[in-house]
């Protein structure tokens, strides 16, 4: 009799825990937004995740290490990429730093830019700051100036402008999940919880 009671109690407990987990799921309109229209992704065979960010954003800086660890563990069906915001001239210069990291194939430029701005208090917008910064990665002043002023860079900035408008990005960090959902920090979602919501939506897309 005791064994039957124990089993029933255990079963009830499991049901209660399961119900609690379900009831604690992230909710549309509270923890994430559903985009008005689904936007085509660049690879329909994968689940696309876009992070919108700005090097000058303190929350983006705080998220960076967590983001690196998260990205390293992503499965092969995830297409993750980043897009810098270009809201003003400072942001556009910072966006060029990101695209320079891609062009020169030096991802360490990204982490060092965050550190330079937030830890070393350098705005990273003038030649006096940028020349020695790029030199530390073996990139000459002529090389970075040539890239910064190139037609290819202008196209990169225009594309970043377009992405920001298309996804109606008004604050960063923000994530777009598979062209359907937007996740950004709010009173209900702290910066440290953003990737948990993204993971939840990834699983939602797989179901």
Description:
- This protein is α+β, with helices and mostly antiparallel strands and 207 residues long.
- The protein has one domain: Glutaredoxin.
- Helix content is 53%, strand content 12%.
- It is built from 8 helices and 5 strands, in the order αββαβαααααββα.
- It has helices spanning 2-23, 58-72, 89-103, 108-118, 127-135, 141-148, 151-166, 194-206, and strands at 33-34, 47-53, 78-84, 174-177, 181-184.
- A 5-stranded mixed beta sheet has the order 1-5-4-2-3, sandwiched between helices.
- α2 (58-72) links the parallel β2 and β3 (78-84).
- α3 packs antiparallel against α4 and α3 (89-103) packs across α7.
- It is globular and about 50 Å long.
